[in-house]
């Protein structure tokens, strides 16, 4: 019997346990995107609270996912992304009265950092056939592009940023949901082959 790649073995043993994390993150992002599209005129303070809660929840999911995926590649990147997201959420909650421009800078920088680390973590999974790493890369690049758009258009105003963020959240959420189901599918295939 041929020896399996240790990365594939480690990934396949945890795939069934972690597939729902990206799905949950994706559904939270989709929900956020819908809320932002329905109420685009929300005040800067409400927007700050929504972004803060979203980044905190997303960061916690990212940390848990990174810890649960240890040994499969990308763990350090996932935990780092999670810690950065939690830190951004805490800053936004502690200083909600800051100007909209500061918020825009924070959101833009967060999206760039998130995009870079999401892309790196997903690229590390390319060694695992059928892992769906392309969806993770797509979500990361989407976040990176959004962050750059925000940083180069800081004066666009909070409502404009809400629209951009809503669209990003919807597309990013769908990508994460697809990525999660791809991981689930791989876990089932490998599980059937192994037994």
TrEMBL record:
Keywords: Membrane, Transmembrane, Transmembrane helix. One of its GO terms (cellular component) is plasma membrane. The chain crosses the membrane at residues 18-39, 45-64, 76-96, 102-121, 133-152, 158-181. It holds the Pfam family DUF308. PANTHER family: PROTEIN HDED (PTHR34989:SF1). This is HdeD family acid-resistance protein.
